[in-house]
Amino acid sequence: MIRYMKKLSAEIIGVLGYRGIMILLALLLFFLLFAWIKSRLRYRKYKRGIDKKEAEQRATRERRYVTSKMKEHILERDNYTCQICGISRDFLNSYAEGLGDYLLLEVDHIVPVKQGGSGDDEDNLQVLCWRCNRKKSGTKTNEDVAEQIDYGIHLFFDE
Ligand SMILES: [Zn+2]
């Protein structure tokens, strides 16, 4: 085996010469170095992409978050009244005292944060009942939802 290897290397040297082998080794080394640098660069790019995405997601989460204090402020400002269908705590209480407590009201971003709306500016916040809020999800406006809904009760402001 060793003899065979010696013979083979002697033949290679014979064909390429020492200089040829050195060039070949240098090329191989260069190629390995190149591949290594390339993979490092690709990894860094990948890592940076992930970091950027995480930062964006975190920013979105924070912008979407409405503090409980702000939520209370918006509920009071809108008088515990859905800004689309007009159902309110007072309206339900007028039927039976305490009935209004069963009305599930939510604070909605008028222009969704995803579409560039402000997350914590009170001008972009409104009170909606849960039914209207589910219908508004996505890109719809209050007017779009108002056209769609018919809850069987008519509580619109302009009545
Ligand atoms: Zn409603």
Written description of the protein model:
The chain is mainly α and about 160 residues long. It folds into two domains: about 60 residues; about 90 residues, DNA Binding (I), subunit A. It contains five helices and two strands, in the order αααββαα. It is rod-shaped and about 105 Å long. The mean pLDDT is about 85. The structure holds zinc ion (ZN). The site of zinc ion has 8 residues, from β2 and α4.
- The CATH class of the largest domain: Mainly Alpha
Strand order of the largest sheet: 1-2
Report the portion of residues in β strands.
5-15%
The strand count comes to: 2
Number of helices: 5
Portion of residues in helices? 55-70%
Which geometry do the CA atoms define?
rod-shaped
Assign the structural class, choosing from mainly alpha, mainly beta, alpha/beta, alpha+beta, or little secondary structure: mainly alpha
Kindly provide the radius of gyration, computed on alpha-carbon positions and rounded to a whole number of angstroms. 35 Å
Distinct small molecules bound, one entry per kind: zinc ion
List low-pLDDT spans.
none
- In CATH terms, what is the architecture of the largest domain? Orthogonal Bundle
